[in-house]
Design goal:
There is one protein chain. The chain is an alpha/beta fold. It has one domain: UDP-N-acetylmuramoyl-L-alanine:D-glutamate ligase. The chain has a three-stranded parallel β-sheet, sandwiched between helices. Strands 6-7-8 form a three-stranded antiparallel β-sheet. Strands 1-2 form a two-stranded antiparallel sheet. The radius of gyration is 16 Å and the shape is globular.
C-alpha cells in the first residue's frame, strides 16, 4: 500500500491506500504466531483487517504473549478486542473517539492498560490507585509523522526489558520526542 502524508502547522494528515495490508489474515500469520513464547510482545495497529487484529489479540491472551494495540488509524473497536489487549495506546484524539467519556473515567476503567499519549506533555495512565502522567520531552517539532509508532516500539522494548510501566512509558516518550 501507500500513504500520502500532508503537513500543516506541525501536524499531519495521512491518506492511506492499503492494498496488501487488507489481505493480512490470521491464517496468513498463524505459523509466525506459533513461534512466539510466553513473555514475547506483539505490537499491532489498525492498518490490517479488524478480524485479524481481534484474532491475534485473542491468540496472544490465550498463549501468554504480551500485546500492545495502537488504535491507529482510528476505527471503532469491540470491547472484547480491548479486553484481550494488554496495553491500548491511543493518542488524545483517538481516545476521545473510542471512549465517549471523560479521559479520567476511561483511564480508571482500564487500569495499567489504557495509556493515552498527550504529545510533548507525555502520556497518562491509571495505575489502579492514582492517575499518572509520565512527563514528555519538548522538542522543536518539524513533523509528528511516526511519533506514535516510535512511542509504541520503544514501549515494547521497555516492557520486554522488564521496565516498570512508568519507566517503559518514559523511554517511549523520550524516543518519540526524537522522532518529531
Amino acid at each position: 500500500g501507500t500513504a500520502h502524508i500532508t503537513l500543516a502547522d506541525n501536524d499531519n494528515s495521512i491518506i492511506v491506500v492499503p492494498s496488501a495490508n487488507n489481505e493480512v489474515t490470521f491464517r496468513n500469520i498463524k505459523d509466525q504466531l506459533a513461534q512466539l513464547e510466553e513473555g514475547d510482545i506483539v505490537l499491532l495497529q489498525q492498518e490490517i483487517p479488524a478480524d485479524t487484529v481481534a484474532r491475534v489479540l485473542a491468540y496472544c491472551k490465550q498463549h501468554g504473549v504480551i500485546s500492545i494495540l495502537n488504535p491507529a488509524p482510528y476505527r471503532d473497536i469491540d470491547e472484547a478486542v480491548i479486553e484481550n489487549a494488554d496495553y491500548l495506546t491511543p493518542n488524545e484524539t483517538e481516545s476521545a473517539a473510542l471512549f465517549k467519556e471523560d479521559l479520567d473515567e476511561a483511564l480508571e476503567r482500564y487500569p495499567n492498560k489504557l495509556i493515552v499519549t498527550i504529545g510533548d506533555k507525555g502520556a497518562r495512565y491509571f495505575n489502579g490507585e492514582n492517575h499518572v502522567t509520565v512527563k514528555g520531552f519538548k522538542r522543536d517539532v518539524k513533523d509528528t509523522t511516526g511519533a506514535g509508532d516510535t512511542f509504541n516500539g520503544a514501549l515494547a522494548v521497555g516492557l520486554q526489558k522488564g521496565f516498570a510501566l512508568d519507566k517503559a512509558i518514559e523511554l517511549a516518550n523520550l524516543a518519540a520526542s526524537y522522532s518529531v
